[in-house]
Amino acid sequence: MTDGHTQATHGDAHVEGQQHPLGVYFKIWIWLFVLSAGSYAVDYFHVESYLRWTLILIFMMAKAGLIVAVFMHMVWERLALIYAILAPPVFVLVFVALMTSESGYTFLTRTIFFSGAS
Amino acid sequence: MSDTTATGTAHPTARPGGMDGFVADWASDQRAFKGVPWGKAMMWIFLLSDTFIFSCFLLSYMTVRMSTTVDWPNPSEVFALSFGGEPIPLILIAIMTFILITSSGTMALAVNFGYRKNRKVTAILLVITAIFGATFVGMQAFEWSKLIADGVRPWGNPMGAPQFGATFFMITGFHGFHVSVGVLFLLIVARKVLKGEYDRGDKGYFTSRPGNYEHVESMGLYWHFVDLVWVFIFAFFYLW
Fold it and tell me: I want to staple B61 with a disulfide (CB 3.0 to 4.6 A). Which of A27, A70, B67, B167 is the partner?
């Protein structure tokens, strides 16, 4: 987790940078293709209902995780940066919960209104 | 206390890692993000704010989709494309997804070759990334024209819930704008790399600080973020 950070190059000492073997990127690249093909297959083969939503979310989180972790070099950063960037978006889930309840209420009132009940 | 200055990487191994490092880095008046150039930290913070913008878009999409009493149009059929035979569901979107992932890969390689100071390969990879990005925007323009021809408008459409058009144009439009801006900056960075401005440390357009190959990595962060947002749009808008 910690020591992936190297001085970028021979010489220029004030340049800080992430330098990793190319093989890592190619491996992740192939995985992203496989996972994308997987999520497309969910639609292509008409997987429905809970299995569909579960698979979509799994493929989505796997892809997002790989991109952030490796392509954006997050696994090699220190925890100070990781927490500063990745913790705040978690609170979006609170917003999701709020709006789920709100839209359920809107749906209910609309159903009552459009059915003509007073 | 030797490691509290702006160049906090003189002894990267001298500081604790893990949770101890987290506490120590944030604990006192010092540079919090050790070993991260300021430009890169700022790019991350910008991306965090952008995350919230796209979160709000996707949340409003979720809210209108959950609260509408009219059936939501089936994206699998709306975005189907026929190449002479049976329409293939979502095929254009799938191709766009693969194009964006490919461009993310070339971008990651460009960052790597940038730190190796391989100017030619870095510039070529950046231009290839830009070409993939432009292709993506082109396909999105095609998709928009097709939907507009089919009668989809922000206020209604023949297939079902009127909110479909509003959220579609808003979300994909904002993402497409991000891609377009990214393409522009990719070309600017490629030009700077090719001219050796990062080797000489020339000043940038808006700053008196010398430029260096960290810019390529910050550019990469932005580009991967655009790909990342597409992962969520693809899952929630097109597949759900």
Answer: B167
